Amino acid sequence: MIRTFRQHTIRPQQELTGKLWNFTPLQGERAGETFPVPTPSCWETYPGFGLYRGEGRYETRFAGSGNLRIECKGVSHTATVLLDGEQIATHYNAYTAFCALAKDVPEGEHTLAIVADNRFSEQSALHVPNDYMSYGGISRPVVLEQVGDAFIEYVHVAPAKTDGVWHAHVRACVHALKSAPILLRVRIAEEELIFDVQSLPEGERIFEGDMRFSDVTAWSPEAPVLYTVTATLEREGVPFDDLIDRFGFREVAVSGKYILLNGAPITIKGVCRHEDHPQYGCTLPFAAMAYDLALIRDLGANSVRTSHYPNDEVFLDLCDELGILVWEENHARGLSLEQMQNPNFERQALEVTREMVTQHYNHPSIYIWGILNECASDSEYGKFCYQEQFACIRALDRSRPRSFASCKFKTDICFGLPEVVSYNIYPKWYHDTPAKEYLADLYDWVQRETEGAGKPFLVTEIGAGGLYGYRSPYATKWSEEFQAKTLREQLGVVLSFEDCAGVYVWQFCDIRISEEWWGGRPRTMNNKGIVDEYRRPKLCYEVVKELFHTF
């Protein structure tokens, strides 16, 4: 499944995944053996490959000709793409899409091969042994498109309300393979923008314009109304390319300690969620995504934090449709100063940030961009990295606030950079300080000693571990009773704290972690989920539900 809606009616498009491909591991005991596997998928779900780290070659055949655009929605974590044996693209990072363009492909049957590599090395600064699993494989769909001598890369719509009237700034990117005249038409509701170019030069060109709307409905969690933007390329009155996307008329702003949605303060009641499932790895099918969101809505939550990477766009489509607010963040978790000084780190982090914002710009559910969870924000070099990545976001999108989740208790030096201050805290789990005392002390320090004073304050992680089915009359650590008791205290304090703009529970479901992180993690899993890995609710599920519905 590519998206929850159709993106083209003119441009020919077909999904190449959703069927069996041939898979060949290139290392290990079964190196060179070829067998059919479903795609998209993670190879850790194949029998005998649960711990495989290495390269895997995926291969399929298709019929096509002309200029072919091959879009990979996600390959974990380093990809090499070959068409008929010739390399046409490489890409790093599992969680963003990339494209390969092959010109003038002759008619007939062709072989597409994708080599995925999930090994850890100095070449990979973001995918490292961590408190979640870096899977291997073609983890998201692969799409084949046939394009002409020009095609539309993206159309961004930035809505804003002025004097009670909705406007939209439109920014469209057109890619020309050769110089030729084109007419670009952009339609939203009953309004239209037209750009007539007598000679579009080869390469990418940006077209920008403004539109005014007299009768549209705002998007909100209570009424998630979506609109379609349709862009077409024409020549001599005949359309030859198109791109359809969705967006919502909504504004996000920051005013003092409040986050505003359409001018009104919002209180975030959310969960952090990893893309992880024991049957599917990080390749959750549509039904599993929808079930996760059904549970999240049952809790009374209004937001999801995409921990700790950009999510599958189908999941974001569902959040748009259901009115679930999304904190989406780039890919980096818990990296030390030494890890951030990897010569590949800043380049790779900036690449995933650019791809995340560009590809997911139109989702109205995304109300904030996050970066660099629990990284070295207490160091000068770390501050430089945060500054560069925030600047990257601001250059691409000025319509949303920015933040990062810090764990640097009274040592963080980066709160002058984002619009929203965010902290991950675990009172009564990693330390014995009562939640009320810990939160008040931390908030007071932010106001007195940092450049985050006066900004909205979010608690982006709070929680405790609990093993599903482990019950203790003494409510010992790792028992469901302890987890439920701790979350009741933590959440009650945070939701009662009038200066806090909201909270995210860590985490929605138990997840698999890297084998190297086994210490302190029973079952080699992060067990802080309020449901287990199979989505079975723990005792704390009802506690969170009660508190979210009460406040």
From TrEMBL:
GO terms for molecular function: hydrolase activity, hydrolyzing O-glycosyl compounds. Residues 152-250 form the Glycoside hydrolase family 2 immunoglobulin-like beta-sandwich domain. It comes from the Bacteria. It holds the Pfam family Glyco_hydro_2_C. The keyword Hydrolase applies. Belongs to the glycosyl hydrolase 2 family. Keywords: Glycosidase, Hydrolase. GO terms for biological process: carbohydrate metabolic process. SUPFAM superfamilies: (Trans)glycosidases, beta-Galactosidase/glucuronidase domain, Galactose-binding domain-like. It comes from Candidatus Gallimonas intestinigallinarum. Residues 252-548 form the Glycoside hydrolase family 2 catalytic domain. PROSITE patterns: GLYCOSYL_HYDROL_F2_1. This is Beta-glucuronidase.
